[in-house]
Amino acid sequence: MIKTVIIEDEKPASRKLERMLNEFPEIELVGKIESVEEGVQWFSENEHPQLIFSDIVLGDGLSFDIFEKVPTKGFIIYTTAFDQYTLKAFKLNSIDYLLKPILDEDLAGAIEKYKSFIPSDNSVNSQEIKQLIKKEKTTLSRILVKIGYNLKIVQTHEISCFFSENKIVYLQTQERSFPSDFTLDELEDTLDEKKFFRVNRQFIINSDYIKNIHTSPNYKVELEFQPQEEITVSRDRVKDFKDWLVS
């Protein structure tokens, strides 16, 4: 049996996931947690399960906070409406990342993925599993941003570029710019590499928003870009940039 815990603060979503998991005879549900505070207490006082299904945004914080306070050897399948946390999720024992509403086939696939990592004697080699997980490319498709006390979902195809200014990384849409929680290095690892390219230390651009490309005899490449007026490709990136344009 695979001892399993659900972390979910929305009761209807928790009940639905429990019903879905009941269809898998190998799953034994041993706990249900609704908050970061409750999670820290539960994992401090109980034997850790082999598998955890966890929402990310809880009423009193992010579920990441639980495992940063009480590290677990269990493996986590994150269930959430937002995919902006993929990079951090895969650093914290995650073996899969399911976007809500969860589909039966996606849930079955995630459980099979977990089982494929576990040898027949049920021993778990954490380092080996993490190496397998790192090979899976996760692609960011939407980002959650804050506007005052409100939240807004921005699709990455609506973003013309990401840029760094005063140690904050912003995303730029046709309407305005929004601060994000990412670094440019993190974005470079998780954005669709066919659409986005790091042209210099300050900018990652979306190819759909390039208006014109200007070159000069000294190998300088400048982009007329929406809504930025002009962006320069750093010299050490020019060849890679040209290769990317035609790939």
UniProtKB/TrEMBL annotation:
InterPro entries linked: CheY-like_superfamily, LytR-like, LytTR_DNA-bd_dom, Sig_transdc_resp-reg_receiver
Molecular functions (GO terms): DNA binding
Alphabetized SUPFAM superfamilies for the sequence: CheY-like (SSF52172)
HTH LytTR-type domain span: 143-247
Boundaries of every Response regulatory domain copy: 3-115
Keyword Transferase in record: no
Keywords: DNA-binding, Phosphoprotein
Residues with 4-aspartylphosphate modification: 55
Transmembrane residue ranges: none
Signal sequence range: none
Protein name, entry field: LytTR family DNA-binding domain-containing protein
Species the sequence originates in: Chryseobacterium tagetis
